[in-house]
Amino acid sequence: MRPQTDTAADQAPADQAPADPAATDDMLATQPVGYWSGLAHTVVTRHLRDAMARIDVTQPQYWVLNRVNGGSAAPPSREELVIQLTPLADGPDEMGRVVDQLVHRGWLRIDAGHRLHLTDAGEAARVRLRELVTELRTVVHEGISDAEYVIALKVLRRMVANIENDGDS
User: Fold this and answer.
1) What is the pLDDT of residues 66-116, one digit of tens each?
2) How many CB atoms are located within 10 Å of the residue 113 CB?
3) Which helix (H) or strand (E) holds 85?
4) Per-residue pLDDT at 3 exceeds 70
5) What is the C-alpha end-to-end distance of the chain, expressed in Å?
């Protein structure tokens, strides 16, 4: 068997076009979802994180502030919060470090029962970040109706379910 040298064949099966950012509408159905979903994740996450970095905050810090805010739910312990948010994090140790950063910054406090609470400064930061995220969402969703957005997410959710239900994964 000789190695393939055709780069287009290396990128996609013969019945599927390789990822093409300039694909026309009639070609989109053959485009690889992994490429487009990955690209969307990368671009949107970078846009959000760059905007947050300009005000010296990270996306994981925002996650923690939102989770600690929690409304009427009991405040989480550090351990509970780390368990809840680690699947979103860049590594298993990140969320513990984020809690430490926010305590050091004075945005979180830990009570005698080891529960996390927002300080006034932490709540002010959470509100400011919520406003920023809302502004960024407006940019990302420009020209996309809520109905179109819901359809897109339903399609992605179905693809995930299809793969998880496959049994071979």
Assistant:
1) 999 877 678 999 999 999 999 999 888 999 999 999 999 999 999 999 999
2) 8
3) helix 78-85
4) no
5) 28
Q: Residue 122: which residues within 8 A CB-CB, separation 6 or more?
A: 65, 68, 102, 106, 107, 108
Look-up of token digits 């919520």: 130
DSSP state of 115: B
- The Cβ-side half-sphere exposure at 118, using a 13 Å CA radius, reads 20
Q: Are 36 and 27 in contact (CB under 8 A)?
A: no
Q: Is residue 134 over pLDDT 70? A: yes
Read off the pLDDT of residues 76-86 as tens digits, 9 standing for 90 and up: 999 999 999 99
What is the H or E stretch that residue 27 is in? helix 25-28
Please identify which residue in the block is written with the tokens 């071979």. 168
Nearest 5°: phi and psi at 52?
A: -70, -35
What was the pLDDT predicted at 6? 44
CB distance 93 to 130 below 8 Å? no
* Environment class of 102 (CB within 10 Å of its CB; exposed 0-12, middle 13-18, buried 19+): buried
Name every residue whose Cβ is closer than 8 Å to that of residue 31 and which is 6 or more positions away in sequence. Answer: 16, 17, 19, 20, 23
